[in-house]
Structure formats: structure tokens, C-alpha cells
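Reply to dn_fold:

You asked what the input looked like. This is it:
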Amino acid sequence: MIDPVRQSMLARMGIQSWQLRRPAMLGVAPAEEAEVASTESPQEAIPQAPRPAGKLWLLAQALPAATLLEDICQLLAIRTDEVTLLSTPPEAHWLQQEPSPLLWLTEADSRWPEALVCPLAPGSAEKRALWQQLQPHLAARTA
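and this is what came back:
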């Protein structure tokens, strides 16, 4: 029997009680069903994506122009092959692990206040803003 809270949640999701009894209808013994349920842990059910490699993570659809990428990498003292292109936003705990990569966004996002923000094809004002954002990283590298 299902507790009332779970039953109401499942009803709101559109899952009827007969769907929950389906294993019993298929002939799976309740003991086997409980054993299978107990062997699966919640962490196994949801695979975690591996942490991306690289020292600079770029959240964009494509890489910027090669000259811009080379200039930024040269300033940060990294190689261009250490730049990782991300198609989805990174998980917050990835940025807190050591070594902590720099995150480059094409648009500002309040979730990552420390990220570099610069479009892939910046104008002169946007390049100056990027240079100002890079100053603390350059100072930390020389210190």
C-alpha cells in the first residue's frame, strides 16, 4: 500500500495506482520486486556527467575567432587545447573543485559572478571590458 502523500503526488503526475501494480500483474513476486528495488541506489539511477577538462571553459555554441582565442590563452598562460567548449551550463560544484577553471560566458549570468563575460565576436568596448576582467587573473599569476 502506498502512503497518502506519495499517492497524491503520483496522482498529480498522472500515474494511476494500477500502473504501480504492474510488476505484480506480470508475475514478479513481491519479494523479488523489493530485492530489486533495494539493490538500486538513487545515485546509480541518475548517471553523473564527468567534469570537463581544461583550464578555461567556454559556454557557447562555437569557439571564437582563432586570433581572439589565442590572445586570451596567451594572456592566461594556457594553451588553446586547454579550452573546453560547453554546450550546457556547468554544475556549480565543478567550479568549486581544484584546480578551479575559468568560465567564459557570452552573456552575463548572476549564477557565475566570477566568470569572464565577452561575446564571441567582440567590439572594441567589449574587448576593453574583457581586458579589465582579466586583470585580476593576470595579477594573481604574476604574484
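The two ends are 65 Å apart (CA to CA).
Hope that clears it up.
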